[in-house]
Amino acid sequence: MKRLWTPAWIARHVAMVVLVTTFLGLGWWQVSRAAAGNAISWGYAVEWPIFAGFVVFVWWREVRHTLRTAAAQDEDAAAPASADHRGEAAGPDGVTAADAIDAKPSRPGIRRPVRVARVGAGPVADDAELAAYNRYLSWLNANPGAKPGDYPG
Prior knowledge:
Helix content: 55-70%
Largest sheet: none
Shape: flat
Number of strands: 0
């Protein structure tokens, strides 16, 4: 719970309270306007409490994420470093052979993207129109101020 009382988290808590109070107040204001005859205010009267609920949802999700991360880090720090409970000696990194086999990945849900090299379908036959177009594009690149009508080819 100490992680939730850092200056950054205190600012988040204060921002959440201020936003929720403001949004609910604006919702109440729209209800009073709607009751006075402004029909469009009924939509806003519903909208502002939804905004307040969204702020609470995001705040709660961030709190849970921080507490889960803190628990995972505490769990990693509490692991024995020198020997296994079965009496096996640990390697230079403090991990026994049994621990290496039983180890769970620290973040099973996050994977790196797979990069696939794109390779052409095969040899490209010489295409006169394509070669002419590429010469035209090269000329335009070499002459940035030129107009397409100035192309000599």
